[in-house]
Design a protein that fits this description.
alpha+beta, five-stranded antiparallel beta sheet, three-stranded antiparallel beta sheet, 24% helix, elongated
Length: 199
Amino acid sequence: MAAPAQLATSSPKQPHNLRQLAWIGITAALTLCACLAFIMFANRDNPSAVPTLVVEDLETAVANATIAAATPESSQTVELSLNPHILGHFLIIEGQTDLPNRTLLMYEASEVSADPKTETGTLDVLDGRYLRQVDIQGWHAGTIAVWVGFQTLLPNGQKQSETVIEKFGEMGEFLYGDNVTEINGLKRAEVTQTLEFVP
């Protein structure tokens, strides 16, 4: 009796690394140049039909192709706004995002001083908004820095939903955009604001 055939398993598709993305960009630029050369030589009998191309246009085309190649198809951006304000002895941390409902955001509010008082925690996204009240009674007058961030790995045993992990990657590897930072291979979208506190 023959042994059952082993099913081939494939590993999940990994995102492109920087070297692969550079080669894709270079290939796109060379393809563009080849197409332009073909157009020019195809119309050599009728010089008036040959399109003119300014060198600046070629540089722009190459730059745009390189930028497009540097962002893989699986890339995800996150809109994250922050509008903190003070109401009595409460710091109101609120903003908007395009993250799904029940996604957890991390926050930190801290006095900007040599010996700051700090408050940290997580908050839920609901209908594109998030809100947290932090009691700052007893805090010193001065500047307060407020930070809000989204990442897939959370402290204290908290976890993002499987949907969020699938969309953004276990380490946030699919996150891209101007508000994205990377520390030790972990990507996160973040925003910071400061405001003045006068008790």
